[in-house]
Each structure stands twice: as structure tokens, then as C-alpha cells.
Design goal:
By secondary structure, the protein is of the alpha+beta class. It has a four-stranded antiparallel β-sheet. The longest helix has 15 residues.
Length: 82
């Protein structure tokens, strides 16, 4: 009976434990525009006290790739959760 009680306490503790913590999203912006001459920029954004699944969803939603219609160069913003 004691084992079941201890197991219940441990499981309840795990259920109430927070999986929320600070997560860092790293975005790297780059372009093939000759005027920018291979310029890249990296920026980090910190999400405070969020679950990993929420941080991944928010971080990766910032990623994009566009092509300039006339000039034809490509601009990319690639975001990944660290």
C-alpha cells in the first residue's frame, strides 16, 4: 500500500512540475542580392517561460523565403529553436 501511495505522490509531483522555461530562437537573415554582397545577420529572441512546443511553433513561424519579382534575388530568414 505504501508503494502505491509513494508512486501516486511522485506521479502527482511530475504532473504539476512546470515544463515552462526560457527558450531562445535564433534567426539568420541572408540575401543573394549583389548589392548586399553576401551580407547575413543573426538575431536571437528569448521567449520567457514557455513550453518547448509553443516556442518551436512561434520560432519557426518567423521563417520565410521570398524572391524579388524583378531583380530575382532571394531573401531568406531561417529561424530555429536553440
Amino acid at each position: 500500500m505504501k508503494k502505491i501511495t509513494y508512486l501516486s505522490i511522485v506521479l502527482a509531483g511530475l504532473a504539476f512540475a512546470s515544463c515552462k522555461k526560457d527558450r531562445v530562437c535564433e534567426c539568420t537573415w541572408s540575401t543573394t542580392d549583389p548589392a548586399a554582397a553576401g551580407f547575413t545577420q543573426t538575431e536571437e529572441t528569448t521567449y520567457k517561460k514557455v513550453k518547448k512546443s509553443v516556442a518551436v511553433e512561434n520560432c519557426e513561424s518567423i521563417s520565410y523565403q521570398t524572391t524579388a519579382p524583378v531583380a530575382g534575388f532571394i531573401t531568406t530568414n531561417d529561424c530555429k529553436l536553440k
